[in-house]
Design a protein that fits this description.
single chain; about 450 residues; mainly beta; five-stranded mixed beta sheet; four-stranded antiparallel beta sheet; about 30% strand; elongated
Length: about 450
């Protein structure tokens, strides 16, 4: 009920809004509100194809939850690490043909080497385990928060999932035949399972994959001769979904999650001394979007070596640097550039269940900047079908403050925080007359 004891309906959840393609509007999950899409034009340097493919051959570094960093030394063919102990420490025996490595959420170092995956426990609980499958060449890895890693085969365009852990090595012998034991000693042994269906990427070149802290797997691909960037997501049924085009970039070579809603991509975006990768392109990708543009925030890369993102299990993601720490977190500069206009629709009608309902009031929790405005179009019917015409416009904001000759209703700012009794309102910013707060 509202302050007058009357029923009300509220639109504040993402599932209640329908945002069409190219609508220039996005839903902010943190603030539970709509806002104009923040866009950023990143300079694109048309580097040659062989430069892009050479960056794919760089073995990514790995970072655990404690900030320790591991990397592969191609000269000695050993994996070195730094962080907890002073200096550089060797942590594995030589591994030829290394293509990737990642520290999982389970404290295991996973290595893709010579087409196989090697599991090495960083706590020395068990001996190393080697896993491989016929017609599957392990190339890239991504740690899964549910345990294990996802594995990409770029040659055969296949995905696989590695799950399970071996039992700790025991200092005593096997059980005798008189001791009652389960039929299968280890119910969750290490296993590499290749996904049967990957036709969605048959005509694309898969170049990177990453998994979010909630288990959302993203696959980065090149499409066509110009290296157009596309990203696929794995659904709950382990099916690769349709492609979403990433506008403004070409030949990307690395990808990482910034938040559960945003993906960062590295690509060659400018000439210069040292690394030519000056900033990361970051995208907010809504469900079933056909194409997206970079968000307005700038994500600079300072002292970047030009290599791919580190595989990590924490946020923010790290990129390799020329400093002693060997990596730095990816943070943004808040310099947004918003679209000039956008639109969204309520996904369903607000149904009172009675044809005698008199709709009498409308409230907006809104932040409307100077010289901006909001137009709302409303219609009331006795059926569930929207009318073809008879939509009535209502206006809010400073841009409509001068004159009202056309008779269109104009909303006004009110001093209290919410129409709901004792509620602080939905906005996080402070109230400001005619700008931020409650409008009616």
């Amino acid at each position: 009920m509202d302050a007058n004891g009357l029923r009300f309906w509220m639109l504040a959840e993402q599932k209640q809004w329908l945002i069409p393609d190219h609508a220039e509007v996005e839903y902010d999950t943190k603030r539970r509100s709509l806002r104009l899409l923040s866009e950023h034009q990143i300079p694109v340097w048309p580097g040659p194809f062989h430069d892009a493919t050479s960056q794919l051959e760089i073995v990514p570094q790995a970072r655990d939850q404690f900030g320790n960093v591991a990397w592969w030394d191609p000269v000695s063919q050993k994996i070195m690490a730094t962080g907890t102990l002073p200096g550089e420490v060797e942590i594995t025996l030589p591994k030829p043909m290394m293509t990737d490595m990642a520290v999982g959420y389970d404290g295991v170092l996973y290595m893709a080497t010579d087409g196989r995956v090697i599991m090495e426990d960083l706590r020395n609980r068990w001996d190393a385990v080697v896993l491989e499958e016929k017609d599957f060449v392990a190339w890239r890895l991504a740690a899964d928060p549910k345990g294990g890693v996802w594995v990409l085969d770029r040659i055969n365009r296949k995905l696989a999932r590695l799950q399970g852990l071996p039992f700790p090595t025991r200092p005593y012998g096997p059980y005798t035949s008189q001791v009652f034991r389960p039929c299968i000693e280890n119910p969750n042994p290490p296993r590499l399972r290749v996904l049967p269906e990957t036709k969605a990427i048959d005509k694309e070149r898969a170049v990177a994959l990453c998994c979010s802290l909630k288990g959302r797997l993203a696959l980065l691909c090149w499409q066509g001769m110009h290296g157009d960037a596309q990203v696929h997501f794995l659904d709950e049924n382990e099916q690769i979904g349709p492609a979403t085009k990433l506008n403004g970039i070409s030949f990307p070579f690395s990808m990482a999650w910034v938040t559960e809603e945003r993906l960062a991509v590295l690509f060659d975006n400018g000439p210069g001394d040292g690394s030519k990768v000056k900033e990361a392109a970051v995208y907010s990708i809504p469900e079933k979007a056909l194409e997206v543009s970079p968000v307005g925030d700038i994500y600079p890369l300072k002292d970047h070596t030009g290599g791919p993102f580190l595989h990590g299990v924490t946020l923010p993601p790290h990129y390799p640097t020329k400093t002693e720490e060997r990596s730095a977190p990816l943070h943004h500069l808040s310099l947004p550039s918003f679209a000039s206009r956008g639109q969204a629709f309520s996904r369903s009608a607000l149904d009172s269940g009675s044809t005698q309902t008199v709709w009498h009031r409308l409230y907006l929790d809104a932040a409307i900047p100077q010289e901006c405005g909001i137009k709302l179009f409303l219609a009331a019917t006795n059926t569930s079908e929207p009318p073809e015409d008879e939509w009535y416009e209502h206006r809010f904001g400073e841009m409509f403050a001068n004159g009202n000759e056309d008779g269109i209703p104009r909303g006004v700012w009110v001093s209290y925080s919410s129409e709901i009794p004792f509620h602080d309102g939905l906005l996080e910013c402070e109230q400001e007359k005619d700008r931020n707060g409650l409008f009616t």
